[in-house]
Amino acid sequence: MNTKKHVLFLMLMLFVGAFNAALAGNSKKTEIRKVKNFDAVSVSTGIDLFLRMGDEKEVKVVADEDVVDNIITEVKNGTLRIYSKKSNFFGFFNFSSSSPRKVYVTVSDLKSIEASSGSDVKSENTLRGDALNVSSSSGSDVVLDVIYKDVSLSSSSGSDIRVTGKAKTVKAAASSGSDIDARNLISEICYANTSSGADISVFAKQEIHAGASSGGDIRYYGNPPVKNIEESSGGDVSGR
């Protein structure tokens, strides 16, 4: 019986030692990645993405040296895909998943941003262009400052999008407890639709076209002269 206890104790100590070593992590490592041209970005698996608009394309990865190689940056069909592959201990635990994993991207032209699986996206300067599609899901957060002609925002599954700046036309759709805060994104015409307990705030100077259902809420600012409002199943649309 004592022998069994000793064996179990040693196994426990080895496990705790490995656990603490993994949590301690390693020194930070920075890598500049060479990638093909892209005009869209997709990020997932809890990575923090920082976007900057500039003349020179750059993709920089910053993470603990034991996990930096597990951060994948690849371009497929014009989209820069950023995600982590698992680095497991004995195939069961991923101790490095909680360590910060940051990717800094500089791009001259950006048309699409997609965030999922608990990732965060933040613009470090004002993003500019003709048309921009932004989507978030699965608890991800997106914070942007933009100047575009047309902006499309889509959120679901408890994710959040907050956008400031200017646009001629804004389209916003939120569902499943997600939130879009675009009250400081000044637009001429806005289309907003929400459902399933999601919230949307927008700013429209000329026209607001809004539909809310299933407990969704829409708040619009700017007092636009043209208002097209639809409410159903406990949805609410109101001006501020």
UniProtKB/TrEMBL annotation:
The keyword Signal applies. Pfam families: DUF2807. Residues 37-224 form the Putative auto-transporter adhesin head GIN domain. Keywords: Signal. The keyword Transferase does not apply. Transmembrane segments: none annotated. This is Putative auto-transporter adhesin, head GIN domain. Residues 213-240 are annotated as: Disordered. It comes from the Bacteria. It comes from Mariniphaga anaerophila. InterPro entries: DUF2807. Residues 1-21 form the signal peptide.
